[in-house]
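Go through this chain for my students:
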Amino acid sequence: MKHINVQKVILNTIAVAGLIGVAVLAPNALQVVKQFTPKKKKWTRETYYMNDSIENLLEKGLIEKVRKGNTEFIKLTKKGGELSARYELGDLEIEKPKKWDKKWRVIIFDISENKKSLRDLLRLNLNRLGFVKLQNSVWVFPYECEELIFLLKTKFFIDSDVLYMEVNRIENEKWLKEFFGLN
């Protein structure tokens, strides 16, 4: 049987559905929150794991309970959103065309020290996606990736801190061409 990361599923479901969407798109999530009450009569293994995972997420500050009228909802905290983004971004890849258009994509960022974890997360993702570091805050890639960079900027709330450029030439670019196999 394949192991499922229940916490990852919960975080990503809430991230996609949002607070209101959880009630509409995943009614079972609301039932799970209700299962915290001592009125629960029958505990299945799945119920136990789901409740345990939600308790862990609450304790870690990744989700929080919100009451709207008589209904309890769960929603992501900022910390939970960041973790969900890490999970989601782990599945991203950049499509590489058969022929290079001879343009470099340069990412420059100036992210303040109080957002150090986001800065490190951005560097980690750029590296994982295949970008090459020219300097600590300057990264380069040979293929179109503007939409992906927009997604990263949006997910990490760093839109004004990151600049995306397409350039025709980089000084001493021969080593970059060799690195990316573009000769």
Q: What stands out?
A: The chain has a mean pLDDT of 77. The first helix runs from residue 6 to 25. The radius of gyration is 21 Å. The CA atoms of residues 113 and 167 lie 28 Å apart.
